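Phosphotransferase (Kwoniella heveanensis BCC8398), 488 aa
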Amino acid sequence: MPLPPICTTFEPYFLLSQDRLTDIVSHFRKELEEGLESYGKDVAMVPSFVTGVPDGTEEGTFLALDLGGTNLRVCEVRLFGQHKFEIKQQKYKVSDELKEGQAKVLFDYIADSVDAFLTDIGSDISSNEPMHLGFTFSFPVEQTAIDAGKLLTWTKGFNAKNAIGNDVVKLLQDAFDRKHIHVRCSALVNDTVGTLLSRSYQSGPALIGAIFGTGTNGAYIDKTRTVKKLGEDKIAEAEAGGEHAGQFMVVNTEWGAFDNGRHCLPVSIFDNKLDRESINPRKQAFEKMVSGMYLGEITRNILLHLIDASALFNGYSSKILNTHYGFDTAFVSGVEGAKSPEEVKKLITSQLGVEAKHIQEADIEIVQWATKIVSDRACKLAATAIAAVVLHTGNDKVPEGEEDKGVDVGIDGSVAEFLPRFSERVSEALAEILGEDGSKRIRMGLAKDGSGVGAALTALQAKKALDKRSEANSQFIPGKKGPSHQAR
Ligand code: GLC
């Protein structure tokens, strides 16, 4: 059945040609590079002070905290080595009042949840030492050490007051200390960094960890020298084996803010409406076209536009359709995964609340078409981000004289997991951008639990650095036996 003519007025914003994709990728690379050169750029390119990826042999038990997805998650992670781990976890709801209230109240709630977790589930970590906790805080943070970083801005519906500009590790540690909870926050981790580490721990070294969930973002490994904004002294210190030893640095791109200046993204009237009505207008432009928090809302805006033009459901709407964020991306995934028009019709009545008598056969096709253009665009844009990082790091080709090991990308998040054929669609778009040979080298795989396992792995890295430092310090305490005394 032909689509109503009104659809053709905005469809082009959702169909991205190969040329358009190539153009977006070149802008992307430019913004990645700008973020590495100086602070304060949209694509923040945050050095994580994580200097390598694990090899699967790591062992130990750690606490992990995950804030930034749908729920607050507290976990106890046991790393057994041999790429194996076990997680005990508990989820806690973060209400809108907490998300938008005072930061102190939010952090007190987080500390209370850790306390409740330790009491409810019990922890096997028994020692006088405080428990080491990795904090997965999935918001843009300007990190200054593995355990310190200032919040740059909130995203994904959070807007707690008196947090921006503050060190989030300190906010959390102060809350633990106020409540006498014997936990030390020793590592601050973005979920993408966690995903990268977790994927590497489980299935061998990866280049990129990417989240396509409530928000979207990616982290990757770069040469420390490339992170020019760190300054020559810090780079030299790192390379010489100083406190943050290593030639490599995991960089959290914060690619959700790509093209906030709107130079190349295909911004339709529906994207503009979504942005204008959001709590962070003119921010996270890329994220607002790709991630789970928004795909349902863009679809809602399209359907309402068609209803207003009497081109859908006989011009009848519903309470859900009239409500801001009335339905989420699960509806889009549901329609895309439906096996028959009847199934789509059921979803329209049950999840959108439209009365069956207003739904014609053509309406079902229109709804299917709307979810498809929204999700196809999201998949293609997801591919531009991956391609930009692959090209930036020179991984589109096999390095000369080396065996082709391919490029591994760990992905996580509700869109990656539940949007039908997500990986295949991203791979198809990668083939358009990088060519068949380039795209074939890229392996994408779900790295579930990145925010838990990754936080534990980072806490382990931080603990090792801490132990090394205190060992080094102890060498200089008169009368105390340190390795240097033993060597003599
Ligand atoms: C948002 C956050 C980012 C996070 C991503 C995925 O883009 O700013 O830090 O990694 O969501 O959760």
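The two ends are 87 Å apart (CA to CA). The pocket of alpha-D-glucopyranose is lined by residues 68, 138-140, 155-156, 190-192, 211, 213-217, 254, 256, 287 (CB under 6 Å). ok done for today
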